[in-house]
Automatic annotation (TrEMBL):
<dbReference type="InterPro" id="IPR058192">
    <property type="entry name" value="WHD_ROQ1-like"/>
</dbReference>
<keyword id="KW-0812">Transmembrane</keyword>
<keyword id="KW-0472">Membrane</keyword>
<dbReference type="InterPro" id="IPR032675">
    <property type="entry name" value="LRR_dom_sf"/>
</dbReference>
<keyword id="KW-0677">Repeat</keyword>
<feature type="domain" description="TIR">
    <location>
        <begin position="20"/>
        <end position="168"/>
    </location>
</feature>
<dbReference type="InterPro" id="IPR002182">
    <property type="entry name" value="NB-ARC"/>
</dbReference>
<keyword id="KW-1133">Transmembrane helix</keyword>
<dbReference type="InterPro" id="IPR035897">
    <property type="entry name" value="Toll_tir_struct_dom_sf"/>
</dbReference>
<dbReference type="Pfam" id="PF23282">
    <property type="entry name" value="WHD_ROQ1"/>
</dbReference>
<dbReference type="InterPro" id="IPR027417">
    <property type="entry name" value="P-loop_NTPase"/>
</dbReference>
<dbReference type="Pfam" id="PF00931">
    <property type="entry name" value="NB-ARC"/>
</dbReference>
<dbReference type="GO" id="GO:0006952">
    <property type="term" value="P:defense response"/>
</dbReference>
<dbReference type="InterPro" id="IPR036390">
    <property type="entry name" value="WH_DNA-bd_sf"/>
</dbReference>
<keyword id="KW-0433">Leucine-rich repeat</keyword>
<dbReference type="InterPro" id="IPR044974">
    <property type="entry name" value="Disease_R_plants"/>
</dbReference>
<keyword id="KW-0611">Plant defense</keyword>
Length: 1295
């Protein structure tokens, strides 16, 4: 039988407390120590800045522990238990003890027992006062006549006994009693001079003389003198020597009373209580890291990083060493983040160490052994003898870290020697956590620790800077002591925030420097920053530049900072290689040093402050004479140098864009003379955008490698422009009308017409070094030819040339081509005939060429006749793959063969229908990326399904797409969503995968997924309830639902407004569900309870447990007719097995057009999740403020029917076989849905959101919980492939 019990509204099965109100909870017996030892200890703790909880009230024996005491214990980081003589006589104290030890087991609660004048053995064996107290409690239990209360007493006695045994075995502090033995002075004296009883000598430690004088001070002193005469005897001399050596103590108390003098010889109380208290305080102070509190850094805008690192720190799922490397440029917040996390959580580890500012400290001689000593002393908790041999210290560190779990932070590592010296190579104890902050992300995995057989688990966390809002808050905090700008400062704050690009150090430094300054001062500061970087910020950033290992890397950094930020990496590398720069090693080193990163679309990206630092270094070559620098990037400086013709041979690069100059400085258009470049003999990089040049172009430097002339006014390239060494020519946005002379094969002459006209006599291969040619956005360009003068051309980029009609067949001579981009050349009519020479083309981009509507002619070498308009035949062996990318998908009746070298093909926005799509992809054995976005296809073309190595498939913004069935099983990424401008009424109906599919990264939008009659295999299946096989419903335990089949419901699904449809059945995560309006739950839901939460215990049964049905009924109170109610979250916890599932339905909101809503679900739990005897709780949680009230919940358990016919059992199994074959279901693979705290988040948004955001689940699992792994979507379980095939066949028949 299932037993239901109600839970309070809003309760959750799991909770987490991450903050602490108190440092120490003091547990003590008031009558023993409240006004003595405990009071002194409490004052000492408070004096050491340790927050304590000390209850001021006494409680009578037998009373229940107050709730505030329970809360105080749970809100404390540690407990000090003063176990005194009468401690066990208080039931309150014993209850405190039990709760404290429970906290010790369930969290990192520190417990320090103090055995105050009691023996641990007496507690352990319940002897002496502890035995008496427990006997009295037992007597009270036996005298209790009420059976329930007697049972409670019995349970408490068991817990108390266990707690006393446990606390007696813990290591604690012993405060022992003083044992007084009194001897009459006359007795001593009668023994004769020098004959003090020898048995007292062993107990004498120190001399303290206390005088009680009733007859007068002088008499006291005389007696003291007579006593000291005793020490002149032999035995007395022995005592005196021992007193002087500090080994023995004599406590002499002289009492002058009624003429008799006594000497009190006291056996020592080992140590004074003040010393014990000091030791206890120091111990707690160190274990709680109280000394670190005042230095907790201010972190604004780093919440995500704090949560990420904290979640990593708390994740105990791995049984190996975990290393986290926090990377980033200088000043980005690495040290602050690591220090913040360490200070918050180091107390949770028994052994930890924080070594700060390692690189700076190691710059000084002999400092690495000092750091090793600090680390060794911290983790061994001993003070070692300093040695100067690094290898000896490394060995000592290796030995201690292999024996205990440790938490280390190594801040600002900058070379391998530091890592190897501090971490060694032998490995750490399992469960150890190590945080490394560095500007060089390559270092960690290159150290000796990663060259062992068992490598640590390594995670990198890259800090990129703050978002704009957080940047403003941080700047304003330092400038205004608040988080918002003052009135009138909004614009200057905005400008400064943009300048800093989220760099915390820059924001802090500038904010502090601008504190209490007026707006005018801010504006002048901004002008100064544009001319010269702040010295402090610049010095911090320059550390990384100075650490670069070679001159090559430093020159590369300066080149990129001045000219190549935002440019394609491959293009930049090609140009810089021609400038004798080793880019392969150099760019990797810059990335590792966090001086450079690769952004979207493979662009070189650099933080603005780093870029300015690099340019500042170049500027310092000649601060006041720019023509003497190696590079000119400032357009104003470049203009002046060219105007004054001061450029010399020292210049390597120059950039000038007249549009970037301030308009007021250019009153009239200004023409520059070409001879201004004549003396720049070593100039290799030249950018002259929108510059009008007069004179002969033969004055251009012959060493040019890169020439960029956007907005060039001439209609052809000047004949006298020296281009023998030119590697890249960029004439985008120019007036160029044609390039080269197009000729046919039959027109080849021994003396060819030269590229720039027949009248100019130049040598063959005039452009023999040219590798990159860019004519993008040249509206007047109509012909491309003369490719036989470009034998090493690698990249042809001709995008958005709306007048381009023809590409000459001479392109066959460009045998080194790897990329052809003809995107959005919408009037293109003739593509070259391939002749089998283009075998290296990897990328072909043909987006937006309107191939379906144009009259493009593509001649195949094997086909003498030209194809008809709207029909293309391309021989795969003869045509380059780059050209193919430029072919639009708009063609009708297309038969295309592509070259086998093609890796990336884009046919986006070509108006290609499913029927007109190219049908011959068989030869594309190397194709890995295919983009067919924006085409009016209805289903996935068959030719795409057969691609054997396809890894990325993009089908976004296809407004007519209805199904995607069986994409290639090699697919790794599927892009399937709509941009707002491509919004369509058509929604996907079905997405089905191959059983052998690879794990997949899904990039989907909810706007592509339908709320009804929809299936995304492995994610969600929605089907009208009326159309579901009745046998399937029966196997779920669902009966008598016919009355709701044809009712209607609606949902506000994204931007589509309210959509109405018949009642549906949903399936996701192994959960079936349906939603409908009604006032009564199904009558077979017999076990019911009021409210929003139920609990029950699964009973024993002879039949096999198959799952459970859960149902709830809600009353809806709508304010408006069109409002819908949000679907609440369902939390199911198996308390026995400590497993929790948090489920958010696929449908966000629903309207059932009735006052009451019924949600019915079936959960396919197996024996691994639930079995007889397990205690289960189910809670409904409404996460938003809605007018809905959960009236009732109900549960029914589903078991196998008692069938004897095996065929009937197999038939029933087949009914659910397809559903059980899904991979991401309860009992299947939910690794991407499990939190570091153990719970499972069953929410389909996890497939679509590729981050660790847990809203709104954080309210149930705490702020620092995070998802353990990223979701790798795999629709079907490899274990159930046969079950899938049978179940899929059944589904197809029923549908």
């Amino acid at each position: 039988m299932v037993v239901l019990s109600e839970h309070s509204e809003g309760s959750s099965p799991s909770s987490s407390t991450h903050g602490h109100t108190y440092d120490v909870f003091l547990s003590f017996r008031g009558i023993d120590t409240r006004h003595s030892f405990t009071d002194h200890l409490n004052k000492a703790l408070m004096g050491a800045n340790i927050t304590t909880f000390l209850d001021d009230e006494e409680i009578e024996s037998g009373e229940e522990l107050k709730r505030e005491l329970e809360s105080a214990i749970k809100a404390s980081r540690a407990s000090v238990i003063v176990l005194s003589k009468n401690y066990a006589s208080s039931t309150w104290c014993l209850d405190e003890l039990v709760l404290i030890l429970e906290q010790r087991m369930t969290s990192n609660h520190i417990v320090i027992p103090i055995f105050y004048h009691v023996e641990p053995t007496h507690i352990r064996k319940q002897q002496s006062s502890f035995g008496d107290a427990m006997a009295k409690h037992k007597q009270m239990m036996e005298e209790e006549t009420n059976a329930n209360k007697r049972s409670q007493w019995t349970e408490k006695m068991e817990r108390w006994n266990e707690a006393l045994l446990e606390i007696s075995n813990l290591k604690g502090k012993d405060v022992k009693d003083s044992n007084l033995e009194i001897a009459n002075m006359d007795t001593w004296l009668s023994c004769g001079e020098g004959s003090i009883p020898f048995d007292y000598l062993g107990i004498l430690v120190r001399v303290d003389i206390y005088v009680a004088d009733r007859g007068g001070m002088w008499g006291t002193i005389s007696h003291l003198h007579s006593i000291y005469q005793l020490f002149e005897a032999d035995a007395g001399m022995q005592i005196a020597r021992k007193v002087q050596s500090g080994i023995m103590v004599v406590l002499l108390a002289l009492l002058w009373f009624l003429g008799s003098c006594f000497i009190l010889l006291i056996k020592p109380s080992f140590r004074l209580e003040t010393e014990f208290i000091e030791e206890i305080v120091n111990d707690i102070y160190g274990r709680l890291r109280v000394h670190l509190r005042s230095d907790l850094p201010l972190l604004i805008g780093m919440d995500y990083s704090i949560k990420f690192v904290t979640s990593w720190l708390k994740d105990a799922s791995t049984h190996m060493t975990d290393i986290l490397t926090v990377c980033g440029m200088s000043g980005i917040g690495k040290t602050s983040l690591a220090k913040y996390v360490y200070m918050l959580h180091c107390h949770e580890f028994q052994t930890s160490s924080y070594i700060e500012d390692i690189s700076r400290r190691c710059d000084e001689k002999f400092r690495l052994p000092d750091l090793q000593k600090q680390l060794y002393d911290d983790i061994s908790k001993t003070s070692s003898i300093k040695v100067h041999d690094i290898s000896i210290y490394t060995s000592k560190i290796e030995n201690v870290v292999s024996r205990k779990k440790v938490f280390l932070v190594l801040d600002d590592i900058n070379n391998l020697d530091q890592l190897d010296a501090l971490l060694g190579r032998k490995g750490f104890h399992p469960g150890s956590k190590i945080i490394i902050t560095t500007k060089d992300s390559w270092l960690t995995e290159s150290c000796a620790l990663f060259k062992t057989n068992v490598k640590p688990k390594h995670v990198k966390h890259m800090l990129q800077g703050l978002y704009e809002t957080a940047s403003q808050n941080l700047l304003c905090f330092h400038a205004f002591i608040c988080q918002d700008p003052k009135t009138g400062y909004e614009k200057v704050v905005e400008d400064l925030v943009k300048y800093c690009e989220g760099h915390p150090l820059a924001l802090e430094v500038l904010g502090k420097s601008l504190y209490d300054r007026d707006v005018g001062y801010w504006e002048e500061c901004m002008k100064g920053l544009r001319k010269e970087s702040g010295s402090h910020i610049n010095n911090v950033l320059r550390v990384s530049f100075d650490s670069l290992p070679s001159k090559n890397d430093k020159e590369l950094f300066k080149h990129i900072a001045c000219f190549f930020v935002g440019m394609d990496r491959d293009v930049s590398e090609t140009i810089l290689k021609a400038c004798d720069i080793n880019t392969r090693l150099g760019i990797t080193n810059l990335i590792d040093k966090c001086l450079l990163h690769i952004g979207r679309k493979n662009k070189l990206m650099m933080h603005r402050l780093l870029q300015e630092m690099g340019r500042f270094i170049v500027c310092q070559e000649s601060p006041n004479k720019p023509w003497k620098r190696s590079r000119l990037w400032c357009h104003e400086d470049s203009f002046k140098v060219l105007k004054q013709k001061k450029g010399k041979g020292n210049l390597l690069g120059l950039a000038l864009d007249l549009r970037m100059l301030e308009k007021e400085k250019m009153c009239v258009p200004f023409e520059l003379k070409t001879d201004a470049l004549s003396k720049m003999d070593n100039l290799m990089l030249l950018q002259l955008n929108y510059v009008q040049m007069n004179g002969s172009y033969e004055n251009f430097p012959e060493e040019l490698r890169w020439l960029c002339m956007h907005g060039f006014l001439l209609k052809s390239i000047p004949l006298d422009l020296p281009m023998d060494n030119l590697v890249a020519l960029d004439m985008s946005y120019s007036n160029i009308e044609s390039f080269g002379i197009c000729y046919s094969n039959s027109q080849r002459l021994e003396s060819r017409q030269k590229l720039f006209g027949s009248g100019l006599k130049v040598k063959r291969s005039l452009l023999g070094s040219m590798k990159i040619l860019n004519f993008s956005f040249c509206d007047q360009l109509h012909t491309l030819s003369g490719f036989d003068e470009l034998p090493v051309l690698e990249r042809l980029i001709v995008t958005n040339c709306i007048g381009l009609v023809e590409v000459c067949e001479s392109i066959e001579a460009c045998v080194e081509l790897v990329l052809i981009d003809l995107s959005y050349c919408s009037k293109l009519e003739k593509l070259p005939k391939a002749n089998g020479m283009l075998k290296k083309v990897k990328t072909l981009l043909l987006d937006g060429c309107n191939l379906g509507e144009s009259k493009i002619e593509i001649l195949d070498v094997d086909s003498p006749e030209m194809l008809k308009a709207n029909t293309i035949h391309i021989n795969m062996k003869t045509m380059s793959s780059d050209i193919l990318e430029a072919i639009p998908s708009n063609l009708k009746c297309i038969v295309i063969s592509f070259p086998s070298s093609l890796v990336k093909l884009s046919l986006a926005n070509n108006n290609l229908s499913t029927e007109s799509f190219p049908m011959d992809f068989n030869s594309l054995s190397m194709l890995r990326e295919l983009y067919i976005d924006g085409n009016p296809i209805v289903s996935l073309p068959s030719c795409v399904k057969r691609l054997p190595r396809l890894e990325i498939l993009s089908i976004k913004d296809c407004p007519m797409l209805n199904s995607v069935e069986h994409p290639p099983h090699t697919l790794r990424e599927l892009i399937l969503h709509y941009d707002d401008k491509y919004y369509s009424e058509q929604l996907l109906g079905k997405v089905v995968f191959d059983p052998q599919m690879s794990p997949l990264l899904l990039r989907l939008g909810w706007d592509t997924l339908a709320p009804s009659s929809f299936e995304f295999e492995g994610m969600v299946k929605i089907h009208p309830l009326a159309g579901v096989d009745v046998n399937i419903l029966h196997s779920l335990g669902w009966t008598d639902l016919e009355c709701v089949y044809y009712r209607w419901m609606g949902t506000n699904f994204w931007l589509r407004g309210l959509e109405e449809y018949q009642i549906q059945m949903y399936y996701e995560f192994g959960i079936f569900s349906t939603i409908y309006g009604g006032k009564d739950m199904p009558n077979w839901i017999r076990c019911r309870g009021k409210g929003s939460s139920v609990s029950f215990t699964i009973p024993s049964s002879l039949n096999k447990f198959k799952g459970l049905n859960f149902c709830y009924l809600q009353t809806i109170y709508f304010l408006l007719d069109y409002e819908s109610s949000d679907m609440p979250m369902i939390l199911i916890s198996n308390v026995t097995k400590n497993q929790t599932w948090m489920y958010q339905h696929y449908i966000d909101n629903v309207s059932v057009y009735e006052e009451c809503l019924i949600f019915l679900s079936h959960w396919m739990f197996g024996l691994n999740e639930m079995e007889a005897g397990d205690h289960v709780t189910i809670t409904i949680s409404v996460t938003s403020q809605q007018h809905q009230l959960t009236e009732e919940c109900g549960v029914s358990l589903v078991y196998d029917d008692k069938k004897t016919d095996e065929e009937e059992k197999e038939e029933e199994e087949d009914l659910l076989g397809y559903y059980k074959s899904w991979n991401h279901i309860i009992g299947g693979d939910l690794t991407g849905f499990q939190l570091t705290t153990g719970e499972y988040v069953l929410d389909n948004r996890r497939f679509l959101l590729h981050d660790n955001e847990l809203y709104p689940y954080h309210q149930f699992v705490g702020d620092y919980a995070s998802l353990r792994e990223k979701v790798c979507f795999k629709a079907l379980s490899p274990r159930n492939s046969v079950r899938h095939l049978l179940g899929r066949a059944h589904e197809d028949v029923t549908e």
